[in-house]
């Protein structure tokens, strides 16, 4: 299910659109549980919606809305220097699980990357990564629901797979809602150390 969540949150480019039949086959094999029900509903919409409409909805949802961005460490750390260390820690965790991000043009906190890791990693590794960002995941889910986006169903599935909010997660969510991500002074060095900055620019 993690892999289908990852695909769902990626930009609907030609390559992804060309895989509609394979995606539908995978969706048909999902178990009968709430997270799978949410994904079936989303992919039912996605696979029957014109490409241009999918592209527009994706950009409006994730590129133009600050509270539904897909870079998870940004919510808690903003542009502070500590974010670079958090990104480096994620890369080290991926490497320790035998899944280094060799040649990737994305940052390790990009949610589709995290979900792809969860799909391929040994049992327990993916859950650790998602649990550490449970408050941010919930904020994105609430934002998508408020906007009436179909991507709410994907975040519903992700949050169900990540587990229920615990008291510490709820406190973190309240801080994110009221305060937003922290920022440092303009003009500082890039927040990520060189080893975690993409070699080429991301799509956005």
Shape: globular
Structural class: mainly alpha
**Could you give the order of the helices and strands?**
HHHHHHHHHHHH
Q: State the helix count.
A: 12
Could you tell me the number of beta strands? Answer: 0
Domains, number: 1
Rounded to an integer in angstroms, the radius of gyration calculated over CA atoms is 17 Å
Indicate the percent of residues in helices. 55-70%
The end-to-end distance, rounded to whole angstroms, is 26 Å
Low-confidence stretches: 184-204
Please give a handful of descriptors for the protein shown:
disordered C terminus, mainly alpha
What does this structure look like?
The chain is mostly helical and 204 residues long. The protein has one domain (2-182). The chain has 12 helices and no strands. α10 packs across α12 (167-179). The chain is globular, with a radius of gyration of 17 Å.
Describe the structure in brief.
By secondary structure, this protein is an all-alpha fold.
What's the topology here?
Elements lengths: L1 H7 L5 H5 L1 H9 L5 H13 L4 H13 L8 H6 L4 H15 L14 H10 L4 H8 L1 H14 L4 H11 L4 H13 L25
Helix pairs in contact: 1-8, 3-4, 4-11, 8-9, 10-11, 10-12
